[in-house]
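Internal tracking record. Fields below are filled automatically when a chain is submitted to the structure queue. Please do not edit lines marked as system-generated. If the sequence contains nonstandard residues, flag them in the REMARKS field before resubmitting.
Queue: standard
Priority: normal
Entity type: single polypeptide chain
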Amino acid sequence: MNAHNPDTAFQRRQFLTRAIGLAAVSAKAGNLFAQGPTTQGALTPGAHTEGATQTKVVRASGVHVKLGLNAYSFNKPLTDGSITLAGVVDYCAQHRIDALDATGYYFPGYPKVPSDDYIFGLKRHAFVNGVILSGTGVRNDFTVPDSAARSADVQMVKNWIEVAAKLGAPVIRVFTGRGVAQGQTFDNTLEWMIPNFRECAEHGKRFGVIVGLQNHDDFLKTAAQTIRVIDAVGSPWFGSILDIGSLRQGDPYAEIEKLMPYAVSWQLKEKVGRGTQEETTDLQKVKAIIDRGGYRGFLPVETLGAGDPREKVAIYIEHARKVFAPAA
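SYSTEM-GENERATED OUTPUT FOLLOWS
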C-alpha cells in the first residue's frame, strides 16, 4: 500500500472519524443503560417530596388511545365453558375492538401455566384476526400474614409473567389482596407487601413485562394509597391498572385524575362509585382528564353485572368509541 497516496490518506482520516463517532455513541448508550430507562415511553423514577421514589409514566405529548376489552366482561360464559378465550378474540374481531386483556383465570389449568401449544395457539389466533393481546392478569393476595402463602403467590405471578412474555402481552395485572388482616395494620402490611411486589417487578424487567397494580377497593381504596405502593416499589416495571369503578372515596373523577399519571393500562367500567352509591360513568369527564394529562395506550372496557355480555359489551364499546375515537 502506498502511504503517500492522497486517496489512501483521505480514507484513513474518514475511518478514524467514524471510529471516534461510534465510540462516542457507544459510550452514550452505555450511560443510558446504566442510568435505567429515562426516555419517553418508559416508566421513570422522579423526586418525591417525602424522599420516596415516585414512578410516573413519561410519554410523548398528546393523546392516542386504542379501545380494548377485559376478558372478565365474559366471566360467566368463560367460566361455564360456553365461550373460550379464542371465541372472545373472535368477538373482538367482529366488533372492531383493537385489543384483548386475556385474564389468566380463563386459561386451562389456572393457576398453573398453560402449555406452550395453547399459549402460542392463542397468540397466533389473535394475530391473524388483527387483535392485540394487550395484557393478562392473575389473582394474588399479598395482604396475608403467612409468608409461605405470599411466596407461593409471588412465584405464581412470576410464572404468569413468563406466560405474558410468550403471549407478547406487555402488561400483567396483579392485586394487593383482600384487605388488612385481623390484628394487622395498613402500614405493617406494606412492610412485607412492598418486597413481594419488588421481586415481581424485577422478574417483569427480566422478561420485558410491566407489572400493573389494579386498585380494587379492597386493601387499596384511594388513589393516594395506590400511589404510595407504586412509589415504594420504585421500579420502572411497576405501574397502575387504573380501575375507574373502584375509586369510591370522595369524587371518583378527582381520584382518577390523581392516579392517571401512573397508568400503564385501564379498566373502563360502566359505573363509578361515591361510597356505596353508584352512578353511570361519564366517559366525557374521563376523556377530559386524559386530554389534560395526556395518555397513549390501551383503554380496555369491562362490563359487569347481569345481562348477556355479548350485548352489553357491544353497546358499551360503541359508546366508548363515540367518545374516544369519534372519527373511527
